[in-house]
Amino acid sequence: MSPNQFQAKASFAGHQRVSDARLSLGTHELTIHAPKGSDNNTTTIQVPYSCIYGYETSTDKATGENYKNKVIVHYVAFSGPDLRNPSAAKRTTAQLLFERTEDADRFIQTARDLGALPTPRRILLLVNPNGGVGKAKRISDTVVKPMLQHSGLTVKEQYTEYGRHAVDIASKVNLDEVDSLVVVSGDGVLHEVINGLLSRPDWDRARKTSIGIVPAGSGNAIAASLGIVSQFVATLTVIRGETSKLDIFSLSQLNRPKIYSMLSFSWGMMADADIESDSYRWLGPLRFDVAGFIRMIRLRRYPGKVYVLPPKHQQNPSTTEQQLTPPQSPSHKREPESQFQHLLDSNIKEPPKPWSLIPNMPFYSMLLLLNCPNVGETIFFTDTIRFNDGIMRLWYSAETRFWKILMPFIFDQQNGKMVERDLMKDLECGGILIIPGVEGKPDDPSTHKVIEPDWVTSSAAKAQNIYQNPGLFDVDGEVMPTARTLIEIHPSLMNILVPEWLYHKDDDNTTARAHEVAVIQAIKAQQKL
Ligand SMILES: Nc1ncnc2c1ncn2[C@@H]1O[C@H](COP(=O)(O)OP(=O)(O)OP(=O)(O)O)[C@@H](O)[C@H]1O
Compositional bias of type Polar residues: which residue ranges (predicted)? Predict the structure, then answer.
């Protein structure tokens, strides 16, 4: 027998039968060949390594107390080939009874050497008891912690106790003691973790700490964008420890601390609906539909000008060099480098080339800047975006006709074709500068200030029924003041935990592809049983 092959009695959760089986540890999967019945046909079960989240050894009662010859392999199995179907993933086990303890030990050691078993790491779980409809604690207790129990990972759990507590935790956590910060909540708490890490004096080290999410909020857009649609897959992802680079946007306003975003920035209808949906939190994910519908029938148009910087690959080097601030050495950088901070000066009326104004847009009914394919768990916007391609995608519209706006949201919410309707225009960009016509804190009328009277109070503006209110600036579901704002992209700034099989069809990621193939083959083998 080759060193990667073993004999054991095998049985599976939910099946009574125990068979004498031949096990083989391959490049990407454990294969179990077991006789099916009296006719000596064999059945083959495959357990992809990317689905194994732990193991335990125990003593088999029949062979005596001195023998630790039983190995229970814990893994996630899928009932169908759609790895994004939330109900397809289940936890299960394979029980392997070896003749001798040495055989069990050798099996574990070989599996470890081949990367079949999770590598020990230290995890800090941040659980928001108020996230979504308050289910995060239950998810942590019934799914996350039980799965972590056999993983070999060291786990600390902390509840967030107040709004923005996760910022405080991430800005102070001892990075020598934690390998990954994992949020059991929604996008809001992950946004806070990113902002906490990037606000640290040692941000250049902190940004390399991997971050992860177990979706337990109501939007869960980032998890859905990563293909993490169930809590089982999310916890498996945390345990396996595979990471991908994540682009981050920075949002700068004069005399205010920088804000960092991993997901989206919006202004107009979607921002209004997202923030206003907070009053319907008890509805769960449906809150976005209800708030969205109300906002669509009472649509607003906000005045403003938006300037766009082309993405790096479209820029002509001779026109950009003069814009760059001198590069600082990493040890002196107090925060991720910003190249166009000087554009926040309100004396600069027109940012110089290669910036350009979005033409013929005196007002916006919606504006959305996206880093990921999903804007919510159930709103799959487009598959043309990568969260690590170094590009921002901007969608905008001045449309105000109710039916025009409603159609894509009714028919295309989940098929990624929303952007194909003739509603929004889109642009690839490396940065944007937004100059709203009215500034202020959206919820405090005493702060509202008309900055550009021509755009807001002129008779032409009045004739177009332009809203004389700043509107909401929404970043990852949180409100920021409405003011002149510079948004820049920082390509691959952070590392996010992703399923090992996360792969886009046109990416040349052969390892991820191999993992995906292994999982699909395992599902097919399972279905033949
Ligand atoms: N103990 C707490 N009490 C009150 N608010 C909290 C507490 N812990 C965290 N928060 C706040 O809860 C807010 C919502 O959290 P989160 O965004 O994770 O959930 P969600 O809004 O349901 O999900 P999503 O953003 O995906 O829609 C965050 O702004 C966070 O600051």
Answer: 313-326
Domains and CATH numbers, the chain: 5-117+519-528 (2.30.29.30), 122-241 (3.40.50.10330), 250-320+336-492 (2.60.200.40)
DSSP letter at 390? S
Tens-place pLDDT, residues 362-405: 888 889 999 988 887 777 878 788 889 899 999 998 887 777 77
Q: Taking the mean position of all CA atoms in its chain, how far away is CA 242?
A: 13
Q: How confident is the model at residue 93 (pLDDT cuts 50, 70, 90)?
A: very high
pLDDT tens, 479-496?
Answer: 899 999 999 999 999 999
Among 125, 126, 158, 160, the mutation site with the greatest number of ligand 1 atoms within 8 A of its Cβ is 160
Spatial contact of 258 and 251, defined as CB atoms under 8 Å apart: yes
Per DSSP bridges, beta strands 154-159 and 122-127 are: parallel
What's the whole-model pTM score? Answer: 0.89
The 3-state DSSP class for residue 8 equals strand
The verdict on the CB of residue 374 being under 6 Å from ligand 1 is no
* Interface confidence (ipTM) of the complex: 0.96
CB 32 within 8 A of CB 73: no
Beta carbon of 137 within 6 Å of any ligand 1 atom: no
Say if ligand 1 is within 6 A of residue 186 CB.
Answer: yes
Output the 3-class SS for 215-227: ECCCCCHHHHHCC
| Cα atoms in the 13 Å half-sphere on the side-chain side of 427 | 21
- pLDDT, the chain, mean: 86
Closest CA to 252 of 456, 481, 519: 481
Query: 295 pLDDT exceeds 80?
Result: no
Q: Which of 82, 91, 55, 29 is nearest to 227 (CA)?
A: 82
Residue 345 bears catalytic tag: no
